[in-house]
Automatic annotation (TrEMBL):
Gene this chain is encoded by: LOC107377366
Lineage: Eukaryota, Metazoa, Chordata, Craniata, Vertebrata
Subcellular location: Membrane
Biased composition (Basic and acidic residues): 660-701, 712-721
GO molecular function, one term: sterol binding
Record keywords: Coiled coil, Lipid transport, Lipid-binding, Membrane, Phosphoprotein, Transport
Gene3D superfamilies: 2.40.160.120, Pleckstrin-homology domain (PH domain)/Phosphotyrosine-binding domain (PTB)
Span list, region Disordered: 112-139, 258-283, 303-323, 652-721
Record-annotated PH domain positions: 11-104
Keyword Transport tagged: yes
Record-given protein name: Oxysterol-binding protein
Length: 733
């Protein structure tokens, strides 16, 4: 007859059918009772709960008595008395337990409301500057009240266990005095022994609860005082930090003003502008400003004589200076050697894709189970992706292919090295706002990018391995260069950030000079995985090596530091010949631009480094722009921050291979904004790929068994279609 929830000490609401005494004619009638917030109400039916309540009694002042096995009475002192009957003794006990808990909580809340105030009123708690103190104080007080309520619930349960345990022991003692038959007596003795064990265990738990309750009550005031002290300390630290920031800003402005006032007129404009701080680098002092990162070298403006003519003491002849001029001022005719294409109009590429839907998803709820794991082996929903594959993302490295076009026209290998180094840096400019994850390519997936008519190159990517994931990329340009790379991506989730470590070597070969360059990629880090706005940083070092001439460029990507006075995303580099002599200094940022300066003289000296070593001081000519990032298309923030090239990568095209990334259904569905369907399709494709891999492994295992030798038989007999694995003659791998 009753359908209540099982009561627990923490339950705030309890409902069920109970029989209530009405009068001598009708007797007990079935009613729907609701226990909530210390009030017991009843209704004729459940449907009446929304509009008609037949009666309510406040348990804070009520008494609860038990008549017999199923009956119990609730009275508030005469005005209201409910004679109730449960369907069985177990159900009656559930109601009694729930009612006593609710009564204890209601009495406690009433006592708190009658108090004049708390030991630590919210007005006495300090408030951090610029923050809403009222809401924080109320949260702290609410937390303390909740903890106190739970402790009181524990105390009430303690009393209930003691009460019911004593009643059980009395009942067993009464039964013990009765004369029972032999078998029934044995059973009764077993029950008595078990009840005794229960009583001992319950007493132990009661004693532990009582000790905990006493300890919690004793330390309650101490915890509140500790909380107050911590909040006061935090306020003091925030105020001190604010004062330090103001003083630092004031001193920085004063220093800049003094430096500008004392700067020599002939030194103005001798150095290249920094990122948003052109006026700060117009004087010599800025070149000797020590930073936290301890730069490996220092650049200073060269003597004015180097700007007028070449000097025999400098070690550079007139021919090299003319090369420097050609590196900056000579206009590059990009299509001089190509046939005229005026008669055939170029294909018009798309400039927009559907806007990104505003789907919310808790990133931490998924990432918390991935700490320390390789994310390439963990399936992720498309909510974390962007609608292009990793193969298309690799092709985005060609966003600034014109740098390689210019490099192919250089007569000096050192000049060529500058453009190749700038191309290395430019590949990261597309990642600054791109926090989405590309789709993991399926094994055998390809992507072909044919831009021969527009830009003179053709690119092909193929996923050649699934575990570990590896992609091969080959680009051929009609303007005299070839680019190839094999990239394996390793990723680790560290809790607060995600590290992406590309493994593999990139090769660039120029046909005219036969110069062969190689370099590797730096580590990409995605910050604020748990809380805050996601942002990306690039850090590490790159050595660009010309294996034909021995020239080398060492690039350093400085990691972001909150305390650094340097510009963010800074990149520096030095171009040296095979003898280690510096010829160019590169500087800039990986998200905006790169500049180069011709080195006229170098010397050891200047400020000492952090390890006591003297830094190299380079005297350079005026810095000139080498590369600058293209602006993003209009509305890029709603299109995954794609560049103009990225918007065209997934554009449907005729004549591409069936394995091309443009034909992936899950990727296409995501681009169209149908994310639920994309997730289902993505799971189907991944399961199909796993099934195919298991089949290949079974075939390989059968081959090993038939050959009776595991030598030369791979565990997976997959073979890529467009690429063959071989040893590189330059790198030996």
């Amino acid at each position: 007859m009753s359908e209540p929830k099982n009561p627990t000490p923490a339950a705030d609401t309890y409902k069920g059918w109970v029989f209530k005494w009405t009068n001598y004619i009708k007797g007990y009638q079935r009613r729907w009772f609701v226990l909530s917030n210390g009030l017991l109400s009843y209704y004729r039916t459940q449907a009446e709960m929304g509009h008609t309540c037949r009666g309510t009694i406040n348990l804070a002042t009520a008494t609860i008595t038990v008549d017999d096995a199923c009956n119990f009475v609730i009275s508030n002192g005469g005005a209201q008395t409910y004679h109730l009957k449960a369907s069985c003794e177990v159900e009656r006990q559930r109601w009694i337990t729930a009612l006593e808990l609710a009564k204890a909580k209601a009495a406690r809340l009433q006592a708190e409301s009658d108090d004049s105030g708390d030991d630590f009123p919210s007005s006495s708690l300090p408030v951090a500057p610029g923050q809403g103190g009222g809401s924080q104080n109320s949260e702290v007080q609410a937390a303390l009240r909740t903890l106190g309520s739970k402790v009181e619930d524990l105390s009430t349960c303690n009393d209930l266990i003691s009460k019911h345990g004593s009643a059980l022991q009395r009942s067993l003692s009464e039964l013990d005095n009765l004369r029972l038959p032999g078998e029934a007596g044995d059973k009764f003795r077993q029950v008595t022994e078990r009840a005794t064990l229960f009583r001992i265990t319950s007493n132990a738990m009661i004693n532990a609860c009582r000790d905990f309750l006493a300890l919690a009550q004793a330390h309650n005031k101490r915890w509140q005082k500790a909380l107050l002290a911590e909040r006061e300390q935090r306020v003091r630290l925030e105020e001190a930090l604010e004062q330090l920031a103001k003083q630092h800003n004031h001193l920085e402005r004063a220093f800049r003003g003094a430096a500008q006032a004392n700067a020599a007129p002939d030194n103005k404009g001798a150095t290249g502008p920094g990122k948003g701080e052109a006026s700060d680098e117009d004087d010599d002092n800025e070149f000797f400003d020590a930073v936290e990162e301890a730069p490996e070298f220092i650049t200073v403006p060269a003597d004015p004589q180097f700007h007028k003519s070449s000097s025999s003491a400098s070690g550079f002849n007139t021919e090299m200076c003319s090369d420097d001029q050609s590196l900056n001022d000579e206009p590059l005719a990009m299509n001089q050697e190509l046939p005229s294409q005026d008669l055939v109009p170029l294909k018009k590429r798309r400039t927009r894709i559907p806007d990104k839907p505003n789907y919310s998803l808790n990133l931490w709820s998924i990432m918390k189970n991935c700490i320390g794991k390789d994310l390439s082996k963990i399936p992720m929903p498309v909510n974390f992706n962007e609608p292009i594959s990793m193969l298309q993302r690799l092709s985005e490295d060609l966003e600034y292919h014109e740098l390689l076009d210019k490099a192919a026209k250089c007569h000096s290998s050192l000049e060529q090295m500058c453009y190749v180094a700038a191309f290395c840096v430019s590949a990261y400019s597309t990642t600054v706002y791109r926090t989405g994850k590309p789709f993991n390519p399926l094994l055998g997936e390809t992507f072909e990018l044919d831009r021969r008519r527009e830009s003179g190159y053709r690119s092909l990517c193929e996923q050649v391995s699934h575990h570990p994931p590896a992609a091969a990329h080959h680009v051929i340009s009609e303007r005299g260069w070839t680019l190839r790379q094999e990239i394996t991506v390793a990723s680790k989730f560290r809790g607060k950030y995600l590290s992406i470590m590309p493994l593999g070597t990139i090769h660039a070969v120029f046909a005219k000079s036969n110069n062969h360059y190689t370099w590797k990629k730096v580590t990409t880090t995605v910050h604020n995985i748990i809380v805050g706005k996601l942002w990306i940083d690039q850090s590490g070092e790159i050595d660009v090596v010309n294996h034909t001439t021995g020239d080398r460029c060492h690039l350093k990507f400085a990691p972001y530091s909150y305390f650094s006075r340097d510009i963010a995303r800074k990149v520096t580099g030095v171009v040296m010949d095979k003898d280690g002599k510096a010829h160019y200094v590169l500087s800039g940022t990986w998200d905006e631009k790169m500049e180069f300066s011709r080195v006229m003289q170098s010397s050891r000296g200047g400020e000492n480094g952090t390890e006591g070593k003297q830094k190299t001081v380079y005297q350079t000519l005026k810095a000139r722009e080498l590369w600058k990032r293209n602006p993003l298309p209009d509305g890029a923030e709603s299109m995954y921050f794609f560049t103009a090239l990225a918007l065209t990568l997934n554009e449907p095209e005729e004549g591409v291979a069936p394995t091309d990334s443009r034909r992936r259904p899950d990727q296409r569905l995501m681009e169209d904004g149908r994310w639920d369907e994309a997730n289902s399709e993505k799971q189907r494709l991944e399961e199909k790929q796993r099934s195919a891999r298991r089949e290949r492994e079974r075939e390989a295992a059968s081959q090993r068994a038939s050959s009776q030798s595991e030598e030369g038989v791979p565990h997976d007999n997959y073979k890529s279609r467009w690429f063959d694995r071989c040893e590189d003659q330059i790198t030996g791998c």
